[in-house]
Amino acid sequence: MHPSTSVPNSNKTSTHNGCANSLINDIPYIDLEVNLPELIQDAKKVIKEVFPLWHKNDLKFVQCKDGITNQLVRVTGSKGSVLVRAYGKGSERFIDRKQEIIANLAPPLFARFRNGLVYGFIEGRVSQVEDLRSPKMAKWIATRMAQWHKVELPGQTKEPILVKNMRSWFDQVPEKYIDPITQATFQRHFNMKQLRAEMNALIEHIEKLDSPVVFSHNDLLYGNIIYNDHKEEAYFIDYEYGGYAFRGFDIGNHFNEHCGFECDYSKYPSKDFQLEWIKWYLQAGEETPSNDDINRLYDEANVFSLLSHYYWGLWGLIQAMVSDIDFDYMEYAVHRFSEYNRRKRQRPGVP
What we know:
By secondary structure, the protein is an alpha+beta fold. The chain is built from eleven helices and eleven strands. The strands form three sheets. It has a six-stranded mixed sheet, covered by helices on one side.
């Protein structure tokens, strides 16, 4: 998700789109919508259509992820477990729902419905925010991220879309919010002319960093990580924001996610922790990193952590208008931009 100096060949793009559409059309489609206020009841209707032979009395439905982009329901029965994921209202503004299907990194996809997917369940336990600070589990995460960053998507050009997304999102921020409290907070904290200048300066700066473009998760918060303690491995789920992106963004964004949705930035990982994490990451990439390699990536990740604050702050400004999930997106945007400004003052090299 970022800028590119190359223009994709139109024939390659056409071929990729054809492959993607073919893969998507192979997934059964159910013409139903899961409304978040009726999450469990609507999930039952979807499961009945997808698995008509499953006996409803044998099934257990549990909401297992209280996300701020989508909602997730685990369905368990004698045949095993599957997940029903419903995207929040307006999420199509931010995410490419084709991505999870064509990347082939997810569990088996059983069906699509109007605003979500039904897919296989990964055995393990969902991470909690405090787990991210555990050295043992942090090493599993770093190792898995290094593996993700080696993935090559067949037929897809390595065109980072992060900057394209940011410019598109900026133009979607409303001039005025319907809710008067939200509007008052927006007016008190944000000057869009100044924010645009900040965005342009930050984009210009990161484009000079020469961070490798790799297949990235781009939203590696604790709820998107599953641990298998028996295998001592971590798995990543829900990569609707995934795609080719700068390596530094995936790492720096993950460090920001140590602070949780509450944005408790006292929990941002220490330099020593980050250096150890980066060492594990580089070693998993089959490198023998020098101290210079580790320190270079540390600097890179911490510049991109600034971009992460801007990116998700901008996202929050749009969600505050369109989302139907019960979450204070405007306050979240205030927290992200406040931390952006604070951290930027600590890095004199960033314009």
